[in-house]
Backbone:
């Protein structure tokens, strides 16, 4: 019916060209989804080529066989079995998860008070502090990683200070090339991912709600627990998800600063593509990584609405 | 026993400065137990600041506020037995209606069974049973306002503070909520301090009204008191429509004084305080208290001659703009009480006499600046919807 009506109108109208355009607009208005679709086309194309197709290829590839002469199409579960049969791979996975959890947890503990101060404390230094948080973003990832070498190294700033203060007599080697330096550096690199979402959710928090809580008998601590914290949860979850994903996949920093303990799940994964050229097994590792991240998102969705985390809902 | 304990709330010389701005200036008043007091005034008059000082969100720069006979000093909001209904409700968006209403009692660590029972009772009081599981954003504005009311009242506050609670609602819902608030006030008997800029709301709901302007309380009286006997030009202009006639005191006899207008016409009006002859005064007369006749009545206290300049027919009444001989304009409201077949209005240009009795006009305590006669309604009175 609607189509008939729209099509019939140009016939009775005098200026056909203009009314045809008006009819198209009317059609768009009537069929809201057509408009919606037009807006979504670019994003859909992007997602198709950069997400759907590559992941589909990963899944297909994970069943292929790697031979001396290259990758052969097949349908075998061998790559998956290979992962479970060799304890090194699950152990590496756990290790990467542990690293990501540590980095995320410490980032959260550091970021929340800082973001709280930014959003609800003094306005005076807000811009300055925000810029200071963002500045590391403007330098390359590698430089940010390498910058820790002259700080933590044997002849680094920390050792120099300790020796000058005569706290130690010989340079301390425990700062660099171990888990500590990796965790420290990853926190440094990914802190903005934690600070900014928490800051935004706290900044958006309606101050009148805090007054209402106080009015209803909640002291500052209980106001925080019952109102501020729950309402900043979208930011917290957003920060956790982003830092976890980034730290979980990190392999450059562990390689450069991790020393003998620097091999992570990500390193092995990268090796399958650039070193041993076992793409099918690399696909399995990549899919496992995706599965872990999806699992995290499922857990996150139990704590807060994900559309609130990613800003779809105020 | 302190004499102030008869009052739930008392302001003694309370002043609040924001920088150089005197938000509240030497406010002194008392609120009786169970009273419905409105703080009425235009925006920026200090009414909300007064409320926030009672709640504890702001502290007076000087002076003292007494709650229940005791000075509150620096007591933080969460230790004051007052609760606020906020202008935009400020319901916790992440909590259900039930958890919102229960919040205050949970903070007081009351037993859960008692909390549940009182939440039910409160939701029944505000006529919202069965919405406990919903979230605030699933309710209409009027419903959210009821939840906010229940959330505040459940704590049985000494004083309930209402900060323009109906401001965000549309007219129809607002009228109904006014009735509701009055009913709830009667039922719970708690002292209400109600902030509004809506004079009609203040007139219909309050036991007493404190009219505020520039941080000062211009008048504190019953609704009839502030309407019938406005103390200042501001009150006369802010509440209802009023005519101000400028004149000079000529003399007085016991209760009233004789004022001579620029045109030479003499008026007799009541005054509370004596004015020396020769003083300039403003005489206030409400438009509906003026009798308009075609012939000069034989006996009348005050009579002015004028000409119909314009009129607005409003159905139940007609509002006339009458030009006096000296150029001043006077508004007259005439109830359309005549027979239906007669012409309802008096045509423009008709010569008329405006008369009123001695007690209908007042001499205001303050005098406005000299004014241009062409400027007919100064200070700009808020237009009222006459019903």
Residues:
């Amino acid at each position: 019916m609607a189509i008939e009506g729209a099509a019939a109108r140009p016939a009775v109208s005098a200026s056909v060209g203009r009314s045809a355009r008006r009819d198209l607009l009317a059609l768009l208005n009537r069929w809201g989804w057509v408009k919606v679709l037009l807006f979504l086309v670019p994003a859909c194309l992007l997602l198709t080529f950069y997400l759907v197709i590559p992941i589909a290829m990963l899944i297909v590839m994970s069943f292929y066989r790697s031979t001396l002469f290259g990758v052969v199409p097949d349908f075998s579960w061998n790559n998956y079995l290979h992962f479970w049969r060799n304890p090194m791979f699950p152990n590496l996975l756990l290790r990467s998860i542990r690293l990501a959890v540590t980095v995320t947890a410490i980032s959260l503990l550091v970021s929340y008070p800082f973001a709280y101060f930014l959003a609800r404390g003094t306005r005076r230094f807000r811009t300055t502090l925000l810029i200071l948080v963002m500045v590391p973003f403007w330098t390359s990832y590698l430089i940010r990683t390498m910058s820790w070498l002259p700080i933590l190294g044997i002849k680094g700033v920390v050792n120099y200070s300790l020796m000058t203060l005569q706290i130690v007599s010989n340079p301390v080697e425990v700062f660099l090339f171990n888990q500590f330096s990796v965790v420290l550096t990853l926190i440094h690199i990914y802190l903005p991912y934690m600070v900014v979402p928490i800051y935004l959710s706290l900044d958006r928090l309606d101050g009148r709600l805090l007054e209402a809580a106080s009015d209803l008998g909640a002291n500052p601590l209980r106001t925080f627990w019952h109102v501020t914290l729950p309402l900043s949860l979208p930011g917290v979850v957003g920060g956790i998800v982003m830092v976890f994903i980034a730290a979980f996949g990190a392999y450059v920093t562990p390689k450069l600063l991790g020393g003998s303990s620097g091999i992570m799940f990500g390193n092995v994964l990268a090796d399958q593509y650039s070193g041993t050229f076992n793409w099918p097994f690399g696909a399995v590792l990549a899919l496992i990584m995706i599965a872990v991240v999806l699992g995290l998102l499922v857990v996150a969705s139990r704590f807060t609405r994900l559309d609130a985390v990613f800003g779809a809902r105020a | 026993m302190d004499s102030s304990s008869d009052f739930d709330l008392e302001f003694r010389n309370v002043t609040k400065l924001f920088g150089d701005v005197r938000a509240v200036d030497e406010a002194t008043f008392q609120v009786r137990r169970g009273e419905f007091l409105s703080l009425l005034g235009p925006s920026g008059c200090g009414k909300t600041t007064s409320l926030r000082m009672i709640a504890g969100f702001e502290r007076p720069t000087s002076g003292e506020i007494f709650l229940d006979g005791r000075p509150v000093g620096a007591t933080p909001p969460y230790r004051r037995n007052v609760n606020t209904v906020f202008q935009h409700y400020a319901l916790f968006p992440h909590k259900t209606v039930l958890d919102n209403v229960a919040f205050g009692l949970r903070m007081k660590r009351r037993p859960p069974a008692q909390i549940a029972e009182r939440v039910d009772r409160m939701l029944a009081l505000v006529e919202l049973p069965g919405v406990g599981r919903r979230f605030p954003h699933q309710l209409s504005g009027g419903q959210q306002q009821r939840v906010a009311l229940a959330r505040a009242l459940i704590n049985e506050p000494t004083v309930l503070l209402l900060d323009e609670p109906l401001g965000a609602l549309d007219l129809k819902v607002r009228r109904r909520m006014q009735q509701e608030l009055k009913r709830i006030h009667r039922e719970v008997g708690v002292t209400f301090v109600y902030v509004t800029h809506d004079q009609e709301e203040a007139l219909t709901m309050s036991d007493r009204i404190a009219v505020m302007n520039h941080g000062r309380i211009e008048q504190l009286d019953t609704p009839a008191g502030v309407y019938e006997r406005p103390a200042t030009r501001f009150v006369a202009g802010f509440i209802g429509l009023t005519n101000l006639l400028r004149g000079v005191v000529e003399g007085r006899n016991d209760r009233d004084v004789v004022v001579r207008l620029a045109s030479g016409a003499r008026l007799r009006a009541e005054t509370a305080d004596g004015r020396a002859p020769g003083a300039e005064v403003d005489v206030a007369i409400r438009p509906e208290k003026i009798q308009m006749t075609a012939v000069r009545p034989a006996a009348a206290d005050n009579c002015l001659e004028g000409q119909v300049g314009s009129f607005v027919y409003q159905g139940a009444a007609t509002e006339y703009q009458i030009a006096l001989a000296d150029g001043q304009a006077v508004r007259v409201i005439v109830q359309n009480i005549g027979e239906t077949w007669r012409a309802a209005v008096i045509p423009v240009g008709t010569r008329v006499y405006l008369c009123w009795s001695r007690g209908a006009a007042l001499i205001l305590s303050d005098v406005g600046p000299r004014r241009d006669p062409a400027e007919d309604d100064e200070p700009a009175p808020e237009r009222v919807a006459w019903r």
Confidence is low (pLDDT under 50) at residues 1-15 of chain A. Residues 159 and 165 of chain A are 10 Å apart (CA to CA).
